[in-house]
Design goal:
TIM Barrel, Immunoglobulin-like, 6-stranded antiparallel sheet, 16 strands
Length: 375
Amino acid sequence: MIITKPPMGWNSWNTFARGVNERVIREAADAMVETGLRDAGYEYVVIDDCWSLKERGPDGRLVPNPETFPSGMNALSDYIHSKGLKFGMYSCAGIMTCTGAPGSYDKEFIDAETFAGWGVDYLKYDFCHFPAVADPRESYSRMAMALETTGRDIVFSACNGGLCEVEKWIRSTGAHLYRCTTDITETFPSILEHCRSQDEKIRYSAPGCYNDMDMLVVGMDGIGHHGHPGLCGDTEYKTHFALWCLFGQPLMMGSDLRRLRPEMLELLTNKDLLRIDQDAECRPPIEAGIKGDSRPSFFKHLSDRQFAVAFFNFTDEDGCADFRPWDIGLTTSAGVGMSLREVFTGEVVGPVNDFLSLYVPARDCKVFIGEWVTM
């Protein structure tokens, strides 16, 4: 199975965590259709931890909690598929999941068979309670093989929190994406920490196996398990989403889609940002300036002879972010410049072939899609 673009969808953990249930999942699927998120490309509805009983059944198989999932997983899967969406499930490479439910360690083949029988299309595979004497590479490879033997196409999302230099070996295990960070929270420092942690890791992300900075907190509005009231507003959400798209990340929403504000829906369905994220070549961005600057700019090659240029202000004060074309190899003697169109406002800048400084409000950003022009 080849995954040619970073997956897009929704995951239950950030908002619902232990409170996940069948009704929540069905209503999230309904909301994805009714709001147009499905038509924008978001297709996976993923149940995270806390869906199963604490013990396996007599046949050794995982058992959905009958109180929270009374209809069973086959019925839920059928409902999600009837909406034109795909069904995602959660398990763990350890002996237990993060909340103490049975893990899949040494049970990979029976669990993969169970998931396939439920019509699962996506598996998030965590790393809690992993035996100290075991090899994570072997464990993730074993689950990939188990999924393949089912004969069903299942996206394999490895989630080990960025441990064990995962970016250097995970592609060889058969995983389609891999978490390279700890859990995100709905705070601006957490968003920036996750982004900056990719300076030496983003180079490993490419079609077929994508690195994953964790789920989106866009539109959580302080509600839920990872919600922090008042610590993120629309500006922070805008910067968060722009960064994830620029870095070619899987876009797994974590907010309560049933109460998503129109402003957040507009952001999550911004066609230009999604075009950047879903670009066929999935090239990492180049930081065009002083590396680690608090007001950085980035350049990213896109397919179809286009590119993206982005300006960010990670500080709490308004100021200018600078773009220096020579830092990406473009000199004024090249006779080539850039025509830039801003993805939020439609503002056109250029042609540019020299130093460009743009005013960016605190915690905000400006993102452009560009085309080459002769100077």
